[in-house]
Amino acid sequence: MLFLCPPALQAWALSDIPTVQGCFPSESLLGNFDYLLLRAKKNGVPDNLLARFPWISWFIWKARNELLFNGKQILPPDTVLHATREEESWRVAQVIAEKGGTGSRQISEQGNSESESPFPRCQVDASWVKNSKVSGGGFVFDLSPDTHLYGSFGMEQVLSPMHAEFNILLSAMRNSLQLGYTSMSFESDCLQLVKLINDEEDWPSMASEWNEFTHLFPSFTLHICDSFPDMHKCVSLEGASAGL
Prior knowledge:
InterPro entries: RNase_H-like_dom_plant (IPR044730), RNaseH_domain (IPR002156)
Strand content: 15-25%
Protein name: RNase H type-1 domain-containing protein
Radius of gyration: 20 Å
GO molecular function: nucleic acid binding; RNA-DNA hybrid ribonuclease activity
Organism: Brassica carinata
Order of helices and strands: HHHHHHEEEHEHHEE
Strand order of the largest sheet: 3-2-1-4-5-6
Pfam families: RVT_3
CATH topology of the largest domain: Nucleotidyltransferase, domain 5
């Protein structure tokens, strides 16, 4: 049920956890969990992929219950998407817990040294393919020279690459706040997005994204850079606050 029914098979195939013929998925429930908990890691499957399997299993079960009890069909891509989001939220929560009582002091010290250091910073990028049912992207938090956090974000297909870029930026901003970082330099390679934000261009099709941005914006002292390698092209967003 969790592994061999057609929707489950498709969900596991979409999860990026490698399947092994005759081993995973198999008819043995214990064998499947033995693979996910032990053998997959020994076979070189990355930890960040294996970390998702409890959520994937749970959302496969939830999709089954929705179909049986409510007559609602949840497609396997949506199952994997929701599971991935939940795992990422849980992972961010663990980072916050590890910071403990020293978090406020660390943030203050980083804020004081903002002009002297490129940290903390966040690089964002999106992926959008025409005629696809989903889009997404990722972000990298460089909190110090030796501390890096990675995140990815999937969603239902949006109207354009610009919508995808904006949504990934918003996701990164939300995660930054969850981590306790209100002083953050956000970097994007999407020149059009930078121009949209800094010039406050009127894009009616992005009204919902812009509304969320204006809601998150006051929580930050932040910048948007138009190119990853060209740090001197960093454009301050502080001047845009008057129009928000």
